[in-house]
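Sanity check. The docking grid for beta-D-fructofuranose depends on where the pocket ends up, so I'm generating a full predicted complex first rather than guessing from homology. Inputs follow.
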Amino acid sequence: MNALHRLWNQLLEEEQLHYDRNREKNRWRPKLHIAPPFGWLNDPNGLCQYQGIYHVFYQFSPFEVKGGLKFWGHCTSRDLLHWTFEGAPMMPDQPEDCHGVYSGSSLTEDGSMYLYYTGNVKEAGAHDFVHTGRRSSTMLAVSRDGRTLESKEVLMENKDYPSDLTCHVRDPKVWKQEGSYYMIQGARTKEDKGVALLFSSEDKKRWEFLRRFETEEAFGYMWECPDLYELNGRTVLSISPQGVRAEGLKYANLYQSVTCFLEGDFRTGASLGAFRELDGGFDFYAPQTFLAEDGRRIQIAWMGLPDMEEVYASPTAEDGWQHMMTIPRELSIEGGVLCQRPVKELSDWWNCSCSWEGYLERMVEPCCELVLYTRGGSFTILLAEGLKLWYNKEEGIFWMEFTDPVLGAGRTVRGREVSGLRKLRILMDVSSVEVFLNGGRDVFTTRFYPQGYSYSVRLKSEDGRGVYYFHSEKED
Ligand code: FRU
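Predicted complex below; grid placement will be based on this.
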């Protein structure tokens, strides 16, 4: 442990004490989602199930609620719904990561967790930090328990990446397949084109560049947080591109998160299929997946976006914390479409339910689920008197619109064509709403900030019926 590491530890302990004294400031803290105890959170990192326990690390600025120097925060869970904060084991304490322990992933093998990440360094002087002045090193930290590190080392530096790239190369995702190790990283070329780089290794340490994934025409100037995985016999590439222009209802957020299928072997000739957005709502970025021990492919994303300070207000910053993750979602491919559903543990968690037909008007728990089944008819749902979700069967578009600007804190309206909408699941968790349409073929994710803890639903449906689920401590 070096001196800087010790200093960070001391400061973190002080921050934790300060937080413990201010616990009442928890108006909008979620019950089932990952949020930082204090400070700022962004991308999920190092997702894994290790010796039976789920580990989630995340981009964490413990001392700056509006974002700043990045650590990896760490939390664990046995059910993917209730999380325990475990501290910030990955700290900027090396010459190669002193300006941020940036995003990455984990590989678990032989009783160790291999944590791959980008060490970020911004050099002094006048730079644009795109073409000059930034060092992005691929780093490896090894841990036996996720809480303490045994070692940290540099595996690759900018000079080891293809020479047509800018300084922006980052976010290694590593996995093992057929006896070899693979790594995919996001990058920006000198011609302002987003690309993903594929490397392979036989020993987890020495990496060889294999190929790049790219589109013919640029699809944004930078691809962040790539992921590549096998699912139901297909190979999926997931990327978070920056610089994609809005196109009708598509790509309405500042930055995107999309997937496509790769046709052919990803190591050699595979070409990229059409991109599809993972989410149609306001807050979704940098998704990552991992394989649970029972074989499920689970995805978690940041329920937020970078560079949105001027657009969305973030009232929890006043309470000393900012941002949260999406609910962990099980992925599947059905009818050629990538579907996302909340992990099955969620359905087991609710212990109270109440059915209704045609309409529903009531106060609800701040953490609850509403399910609506229709025969394809129109419906309107108003949540907390200011978030309207509606579908008109003639138009065939599902809309999410804030009619109360305070509730949406700067969010306005999003929509997406959905043919034959028959099932809708709404997961509300104090300051977030995730809407899963038709078994998760389309998903809309947003933060919202009901004032005075007043959670209500007004729902009218032509031909629908449904169930309201919640958890009551009394029933346990
Ligand atoms: C995405 C991202 C990553 C980077 C990290 C830094 O939100 O910009 O590319 O590693 O955040 O926090």
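Relevant for the grid: Residues 55 and 76 are 5 Å apart (CA to CA).
Also worth noting: The pocket of beta-D-fructofuranose is lined by residues 42-43, 59, 70, 102-103, 118, 170-171, 224-225, 286, 306 (CB under 6 Å).
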